[in-house]
Design goal:
By secondary structure, the chain is an alpha/beta fold. The protein folds into 3 domains: about 40-250 and about 340-355, P-loop containing nucleotide triphosphate hydrolases (Rossmann fold), CATH 3.40.50.300; about 255-340, no CATH class; about 410-490, Orthogonal Bundle (Helix Hairpins), CATH 1.10.287. The protein has 20 helices and 11 strands. The strands form 2 sheets. Strands 4-3-7-2-8-1-9-10-11 form a 9-stranded mixed beta sheet, sandwiched between helices. Strands 5-6 form a two-stranded antiparallel sheet. α5 links the parallel β9 (about 170-175) and β10 (about 205-210). About 45% of the residues are buried. Bound molecules: guanosine-5'-diphosphate (GDP) and magnesium ion.
């Protein structure tokens, strides 16, 4: 197995050879420069899904700051890149290589980008630089979304994710859905076939978004959302389009991460109000914000609470305070946890973060493959098979493909063995002790002997004559993963 990092090095070397060979051809050279540049940049994760699915709100929650305009203003119709940078700056790119500074306007309830004289249709993309640690390792791309009603907006999203004859602009995708529609499945299929090229989706995670609205804002909304997510997951597993599906209430997650002391005080006051007054007020957002309400919090604060937290968030916050959350950091942490954001971050880390180098190398190799594919030059004819070989030889790619396929095609092994296989190929994380199911404190000796056992076990399984082909191949992949651990440990 390739040592970590070496896949990236090999991809770099192939791109460098191609750049040398095509030094005299500016058009090809430009495409190859883009491949090389990409290998040195942070992982690119795109947020996709239908209009108003809650993408920009989720982005703000993930970053923990108000960086993305929400709701359908003009600027939300443009694909926007969020990168880490020293000072907040927003640039609009138009007419291919022209750029203009964009003004950031802050209002109560969020921010907007003022495109000035430019219209959304003219702008190719917006680039936002923002000092935010969450953006240091990952560049997040907010898309205007896919919509069966607006072909123009869908086209911009699809151009980024599934361009003709080029590699996808993103290495991995978080796809937000509120309900599982035929349109979503069609888009997911289209995205999946591109992100992982012909080999299927390497990095697509599904989010059941605005999860607090699922149960009409009731306190068990997240439970209903979890049930819905697992139903979606089963459906999407059947089609193999997502690696995991997580319910998230993005609005609540963002409000909780930016919880103010004054809001905590308001929740505390509400927790002490008569239960009946509160339940009547919480019947609707309008009722809750009414000026003549008997609740012990002024109307303006109530209106702001309902806008930021939603009815579900208010109900949950009051309940958590009654259950003992007695300062604002504690309440914030509990709300974030219940919003599903922590789980999503965990999934993103396992599925994308820990494999960032491989996902990037994979995107660059697929891009290189597409650049070279139709070229008659000798250099292209010589390099192309090497690209293909690397794509098929890198064991990490095989693991990612298998992780994807395992969701559609169960291996014919007893339950605990298929769980072990899933873990061994990195389904729960790529650290050796995680793969081996050992505690973090395990010594290298322990891990070594466990890995030796695993190599033997999975090699034996792989060669069992009665296994179907898929299961046998999966066992072989698991054996190679265990060999890889030994490679790391010796
Ligand atoms: N209740 C609730 N509303 C949300 C949530 N996420 C987003 N929204 C609202 O849905 C609308 C669209 O959200 P936005 O993030 O702009 O969606 P986008 O078009 O996918 O980027 C806004 O009014 C948000 O306040 C959520 O988790 N819960
Ligand atoms: Mg948006």
């Amino acid at each position: 197995m390739n040592a970590p990092g070496s896949t990236l090095e090999q991809a770099r070397a192939l791109v460098a050879s191609a750049r040398n060979a095509f030094a005299g051809d500016p058009d090809v050279r430009r495409q190859l420069d883009a491949c090389a540049y990409r290998l040195d940049q942070p992982l690119r994760v795109a947020l996709a899904g239908s209009l108003k699915a809650g993408k920009s709100t989720l982005l703000n929650a993930l970053v923990g700051q108000d960086v993305a305009p929400t709701d359908a203003t003009e600027c939300t119709r443009v694909v926007t890149w969020y990168r880490n940078g020293p000072t907040p700056t927003v640039t609009a790119w138009y007419d291919r290589d022209r750029s203009a500074n964009v003004l950031v306007q802050r209002r109560e309830g969020g921010l907007t980008f003022d495109l000035g004289a430019l219209t959304a249709a003219q702008v190719d993309r917006l680039e936002v630089e923002w000092p935010a640690s969450a953006l240091a390792e990952t560049t997040v791309i907010d898309t205007p979304g896919t919509s069966s009603l607006s072909r123009d907006v869908s086209a911009r999203t699809l151009d980024l994710l599934t361009p003709d004859r080029a590699a996808s602009g993103a290495d991995a995708v978080v796809y937000l859905l509120r309900s599982l529609s035929a349109t979503d499945v069609a888009f997911l299929r289209q995205i999946g076939s591109h992100v992982g090229a012909e080999s299927g989706p390497l990095g697509v995670v599904g989010v059941v978004s605005r999860a607090d609205e699922v149960g009409a804002g009731r306190i068990d909304a997240m439970l209903s959302a979890k049930e819905m997510a697992s139903r979606f997951a089963t459906e999407l597993e059947r089609t193999g389009l997502c690696q995991a599906v997580v319910p998230v209430a993005g609005l609540l997650a963002f409000a909780a991460r930016t919880l103010r002391q004054s809001e905590f005080a308001a929740f505390q006051a509400l927790a002490q109000a008569p239960v009946d007054d509160l339940s009547v007020a919480l019947l609707s957002a309008d009722r809750f914000a009414r000026p003549d309400s008997p609740l012990p919090v002024d109307a303006q604060t109530r209106a702001s609470l309902v806008r930021r937290f939603g009815l579900f968030g208010i109900r949950l916050a009051v309940t958590l305070i009654r259950l003992g959350a007695n300062d604002s950091p504690t309440l914030a942490a509990q709300l974030v946890e219940r919003s599903g954001l922590d789980e999503l971050r965990g999934v993103i880390d396992v599925q994308f973060g820990q494999r960032a180098e491989q996902l990037k190398a994979h995107s660059a190799l697929v891009a290189l493959d597409r650049v070279l594919a139709d070229r008659p030059e000798r250099a292209a004819v010589e390099l192309l098979p090497q690209v293909g070989r690397l794509l098929s030889d890198v064991h990490g790619f095989a693991e990612l493909r298998l992780l994807g396929r395992l969701r559609t095609t169960p291996v014919k092994l007893p339950g605990e063995e298929s769980a072990e296989l899933h873990r061994l190929i990195g389904g729960l994380g790529v650290a050796p002790h995680v793969r081996l199911g050992l505690p973090e404190s395990a010594s290298s000796r322990e891990m070594q002997s466990e890995a030796v056992v695993a190599v033997r076990k999975w090699r034996t399984r792989a060669s069992h004559p009665l296994l179907d082909q898929f299961t046998a191949k999966a066992c072989g992949t698991a054996a190679r993963s265990a060999e890889g651990i030994l490679g790391l440990l010796y």
